[in-house]
Amino acid sequence: ERNASFCFSSVMAEICFFGGLVHYKAPSPSSLHYPSLFRCKPHHYSLMSASISAECHSSSSTVDPPSLLVFSGGTGFNGVVEELKKITTRVAHVLPVSDDGGSTAEIVRVLGGPAVGDIRSRCLRLSDESTSEALAVRRLLGHRLPIDAHNAKKDWYDIVEGNHSLWDGVSRPYRETIRAFLIYFQNEILRRPNDSFCFANGSIGNFFFAGARIFFQSLDAAIFLFSRVSEIPCDSLVLPVISTNDRLTLGCELQDGTIIRGQNEISHPTNGTIQTVDKRHSSTLPSKIKRVFYMSSEGNNLLHEVFPPVNPTVLDQLRSVDCIVYAMGSLFTSICPSLVLLGVGEIISSRSCRKVLLLNGSQDRETSGFTASCFVTAIADALNRTHGDPNIRLKNPPGYYINTLLVPKDGDIAVDFKQLSEQGISDVRVVESVRDPKHGVLFNPSSLINTLASLVE
């Protein structure tokens, strides 16, 4: 423990956290040199993402590439991120922090805090792949431990002690920085002896992220550090829709009045088992989802609704981007949690930019029996907060929130053109698709991104 503390202190000596700002102090000649870890600006960083984006954007460019804000979850949009980077890196990825499944659930159970799995997943997709070291870092942070608990714990200790082959190709500055936060995460677990932590199927990236968040006591600072370690383009922003250190619990109300607590229980209940998720073939809900909302994590009072504030940087980005995208994915547990917050509907409805819905190619537990217009209605209801507190309700028609619909060719969801037209949506475009044996019909990534690019030219 003494050696671990010394290691962590020596690595973190160059990084200080004060009141929401991360400062990088130039190391002395006798200390370690970090050639690219904090590469955008050598002495000072503000966690205000818009400022980072402005500082890092090339001044030599005569025409700025288009800017987008994408509402998505951790997996649905991941498959097209690589293609999107070829068109523009000026993208604000807005992600929920209410996931309570997988290894994220174990971190939240023992250490508390918001869920970081979706954010970690997107950060890895955006990370640099141009050098062998960048690929080694990406491989390390993307690694999952074995499902068997005994083997997982052995694998974890090999990694945290620096003996695992995953460290091959990672230079000393990166190695010691990453290890420092893994060690800090381990120390936090050991400080809670009454809560035995299960490493089975755990994500090393999630552990690194959790260690950074706890150390800084800031989700924004953890994202900033992770972004620099994985060398995400400086004008690509990964934004939690709620910037918090608290645990968030998502709830939903069904049309028959049933209340379901927890994102995992809504989307794909697994009865606490570690298994591969197949959202398309999960058991059906007893009734269609009426709305999603945030609940108190304290106690078991199912009626205790809470109203966390939206991340102000999300609102800033919504005011300025060229295009707003509602990505494919789990409609009610990945997209709508970002839309129901105060201020989001107000700003989107006031914008005259492109507002694009990417329709899913297949049904899942949340949208069984839905047509395209049902997706539009669900998004409009979430942004209007139609089924919540009447004192904060909006009454904007769907066309104020969506003006373009992209549909994967040969998808399983019916496109009801008449109803869409009545909702104010007449621009419906079919995009080439691929059929995946596990996930069903998906957008062809290059066709989708080319279509998006044509919309914002």
TrEMBL record:
<dbReference type="Pfam" id="PF01933">
    <property type="entry name" value="CofD"/>
</dbReference>
<dbReference type="InterPro" id="IPR002882">
    <property type="entry name" value="CofD"/>
</dbReference>
<dbReference type="InterPro" id="IPR038136">
    <property type="entry name" value="CofD-like_dom_sf"/>
</dbReference>
<protein>
    <recommendedName>
        <fullName>LPPG:FO 2-phospho-L-lactate transferase CofD/UPF0052</fullName>
    </recommendedName>
</protein>
